[in-house]
Specification:
Strand content: under 5%
Largest sheet: none
Number of domains: 1
Order of helices and strands: HHHHHHHHHHHH
Number of strands: 0
Oligomer: single chain
Structural class: mainly alpha
Distance between the termini: 37 Å
Length: 299
């Protein structure tokens, strides 16, 4: 198989897996509390990443790490999977999947804002317009199209979903400083993050052994949201002649996700969800295009 075809295959598998996780979150939360789902899915992901790293022969490199490397991973692990999924699962516990999923998808816009704030990158007019389009999409989804009254269906749930985008964008912004093996870094991050997750779950209600359904749900989330899918996506980007050739496929995930949400969870998809998602994805694409065409250091 040609290298580019392998890149497409890995990217398609990752996108298909990511399209199912919003549904998997809701199913898992039927059997586990948000802290328990975080703990057990983080552990499942850590096991998947460890096996992947051993197969690739990359585990030995950790012996060359310094104390600073481990502290850095501890910080990243606190953010992801620790804080990020703690907040995200609480949002999914409060909101319909068709609301939580598109709102969380707005994180690239937050990344641009944080880059402008902390990396002192100037915002272009086109970027500001694109961000405005994304924010309009967020408002449409959050209010179910009732923009005249701005009546949020669950203000706390919406706030948690949007706060998760800040955490995720911060995590990736910090990752920009690391040029090592991303799978090794993620594995160590999850080792720390799993400790944080079980500590958090223990503090807020204990970590009882889950039911079979709960354990299977956590294993699915840990494998196809946090672990294996990340490896597939990294492989796709590395195999592709140009990352743009595969990165665009990611925008198929939220739309396919709505199909799973309707078919499996039985949620009736509101027209406002589709309109809002189109606005968010369209705004993100416009942000990326504005960033690519600019050569002055602005975003």
């Amino acid at each position: 198989m040609q290298q580019q075809n392998r890149a497409y295959l890995c990217a398609a598998a990752a996108v298909l897996a990511w399209s199912t996780v919003a549904t998997a979150f809701k199913l898992g939360l039927e059997h586990l509390t948000p802290p328990a789902l975080l703990a057990w899915s983080a552990l499942a992901s850590l096991l998947v990443l460890l096996v992947t790293l051993v197969v690739r022969g990359g585990l030995r490199a950790v012996s060359r790490w310094t104390a600073r490397d481990y502290l850095y991973s501890a910080l990243l692990g606190f953010l992801n999977p620790g804080l990020y999924y703690a907040v995200l699962f609480e949002a999914y516990d409060r909101l319909p999947a068709q609301q939580a999923q598109p709102l969380n998808y707005a994180w690239p816009v937050v990344l641009v804002l944080l880059s402008a704030l902390f990396l002192r990158q100037r915002l272009r007019a086109l970027t500001l317009v694109a961000m405005g389009i994304c924010l309009l999409g967020v408002a449409v989804i959050s209010t179910r199209g009732n923009l005249s009254e701005l009546a949020f269906s669950d203000p706390l749930g919406v706030g948690l979903a949007l706060f998760s985008t800040v955490i995720w964008a911060s995590y990736w912004l910090l990752n920009l400083r690391d040029d090592g093996d991303p799978v090794l870094r993620l594995t160590v991050n999850f080792a720390f993050g799993t400790l944080f997750a079980f500590g958090y779950a223990g503090l807020v209600g204990g970590v009882a052994w889950p039911t079979t359904a709960g354990l299977l749900g956590a294993a699915y989330v840990g494998t196809f949201e946090m672990g294996l899918t990340f490896v597939l996506w990294i492989s796709a980007l590395r195999l592709s002649r140009n990352t743009a050739q595969v990165s665009g496929l990611i925008f198929l995930a939220p739309f396919r996700s709505l199909v799973w949400i309707h078919q499996v969870l039985g949620e009736a998809i509101h027209p406002s969800t589709l309109v809002g998602l189109v606005l968010i994805v369209g705004g993100i694409i416009l942000v990326q295009r504005a960033t690519r065409v600019d050569s002055t250091g602005a975003v």
